[in-house]
Specification:
This protein is of the alpha/beta class. It contains 7 helices and 6 strands; from the N terminus they run E-H-E-H-E-H-E-H-H-E-H-E-H. Strands 1-2-3-4-5-6 form a 6-stranded parallel beta sheet, covered by helices on one side.
Length: 212
Amino acid sequence: LFKRKTPLSVIFSITHECNYKCKYCQVPIQGKKDLNTEQVLDLIKQMKEAGTQRLGIQGGEPLLRNDIGKIINYAKELDMFVTMGTNGSLLKDKIKDIKNVDAIVTSYDGPNAHNNYREKGSYESMLKSIKLAVDNGIKVWNVTVLSKDSIENIDLILKQSKDIGFHVYFTPMMNLDTTGDTASIIPSKENYKKAIEKLTILKKEKNNKILN
């Protein structure tokens, strides 16, 4: 509108470290060095000066950083809308540190996919973490990747979203530099089509737990 480029929404990976080894994520094995606290805060300041309004903190697993609370609080002091992606496994120990975050973004794919593609027992851990966040007044936006397994759990995930109180994005499986080879777990085009048509109908029927 004003003939200038403004980074209104920025996704910022503050760590490549992670305590999970998910089958379709290669971020932790890239071996990149993390920025220190001062560098992270300086970049956030530069983002704000450039016009950023929403900051999405990602990893790796951001909760592995001891300064995660300081990072979130600094962005909030700059009047940013702050979200944070997490696998949820460390949330119990860090819930007080992230109390000022506007929303956490989880990756929950239903019982079969979650335990098959992530860590064993991560299904139960994720549900407990989502409930913990909701009980502490933190909004939860969940991203469900539509794989061969999770595509069968759409109804269950939507029921859980209503019962627990979180919202869901549904996204197709993709092959990216950070995902590795996902060919063996991508659903057929026919199953994708059926799932997306079903979700479209449900959203039109005002299922307000479906974000996208």
